Amino acid sequence: MLSKLQTSARQSLDWLRRPWRLGLPRGHYLAFLLLFGFCAHVYATQELRKYSTANVVAHGDGRYYYAYLRSLALDFDTNFENDYRILGNHYGFPKNKRTGRRENKFTIGPALYWAPFLVTAHGGLALGNALGWTDDSLDGTSPRYQRVVFFGSLFWAFAAVLVFFAAARRFTTVGSSVVAAWSTLLATPLLWFALRQPSFSHTVSAFSVGFFVLYWLHTLGKRTRRQWALLGALLGLAALVRPQNLGHALLPFCEWISAAILCAHARDWRALRDKVLEGLLFAAGSVVAFTPQLIAWTMIYGSPFTIPQGNDFMHWVNSRWEAVLFSSRAGLFAWHPLIYLGVIGVLILLVTAKKTDGEGPPRRLVAIAILLAFASQVYLNGAAWDWYGGWAFGGRRFLSCSVYFAIGLAIALEAIVRALSRVKRGLVAAVPVTLCGVFMVLNLGLMDGYLKYKVRHGAEQEMGPVWQHVIGKSFRKVYDKVGNLGSIPANWIFALRTDGSPGDYDLASGRQVLDGAAQTLSFADKGFTFGGFGKPVHVAGQRARLLTKPSGTFVLGLRDRKGITAAITLAPTGTSSKVRISLRGKTLLEQEVRNGWSTHLFYAPKILMSTGLNYFHVEQTSAPRAPLAIGST
Fold this sequence. Notes:
Helices cover 54% and strands 10% of the residues. It contains 22 helices and 9 strands. A hairpin with a 2-residue loop joins β1 (533-539) and β2. The chain is globular.
């Protein structure tokens, strides 16, 4: 029985036994090793203390991932009392009332992936201490010790690049796959968490999900029962790193449910029974692989089934799904627009599936499954209380989807190359026209700078600042009209609703009214008032904005849908003014405002409010109209 299992495992992983079977040209491996060596040098020589306190390399969430590793490897337990004492308990996790042990709201999975590097660090420093070369503590707290451990994050990030290439190669050429794989490392948050915050779980998450997806693609349509169990185990390992990775089970589920429906439609009950068994094997493999976390939760919380962050952490019916994609507050597309192209590539795969379904994996099924899995991550990340991921560099919680971005980007790049090959003559003609157009725009900017004395008249000057001003101003004008490319179409919709600029969406999208306690918002600050309102001014001793048109819009963002009571301060610049405030066409306040500042209450019921941005319209309904000052709420 054991020999059969060994043979099956060898056959299951035979496709990855030799690196050249990935299809990567041999010369590219040298480039891969050179870049890995360069990044390793940067990692080893950089100063990490700016992202931590004292000499502890692990910081923020990373303290708690590392606490699992240190406690299991050095103390042989999951009692974090002494770990928090020497590493720090930045989030102040208390003792659990049922077990008396310090809580840890993070997961055990990264510790398993970092374990080989801890063995290297411990053994290497023990030898160095014995020979007198080093003088490091072996309790896991020294910076050198942790630096070696977290080198694992860089290692797994580069291993993920090979996985991305292998997955993309199933749909595109070598060239497109190579560019897409490297872009997924270098143009997304993945490189940041490999180099700058390696104690976080995201690079390990990118690899573990990527490997799961690659194995799913490799066995798609020809999977044996043992391979179904192994696929489930790979998902369980990914969930050990981040439980949200369970959402990627939608890939095999789409495959399984489509096959089960076909069996039922054909009344092939024997085949349907086999499908049910395969599904059970997949689930069993997932549970077995996830068992270490269940055991840890039982020891820490007294139950294997828990939400360590608490029931209030996930706002299931109030997902900020649009913000996690488009907001300037670490939105995925807003910070990393190239990922947008990757998602478009998956859509291309979907719409072109009929033409290519005879080649490689069933493309329509793959595209639908990837889009559903990605949508699940969008909704889950938006439902988290801190949908923006705290002090995150970009959309860090989406790094488990990196393999999808690589596949989609490779497909999109290949589609672009094909399109350009058809219009090569037009493209060649467009290059000089575009080049001349750029210099035309720069010259217009230079004329404007000269007119407004931003450029010196008749005197020597440094041209660097001149061109910096010209390019910056030209870019600003374009940006005001177009907005952040990664926030389209959300910022264009925002501009239409507010009669403002797409660029205004950047500040508005990331702001939200705090839950619970009263909060004062100044409309003189950026990010609240838009079309119809002028620049900040002082009116009767208070900073305000003037409503210079018959109507204007102010925007309030909410984390959860709820009714709010607001007090707004208004002042007419004339003798009096009649004002109406409405939301979704329903009047909330209609009041005549007389001389000086006055405060007016209004209530916006829950039925009119929504999770995310809410657009309030302010109108002056009396004539003649003078500018109305709006101060705070």
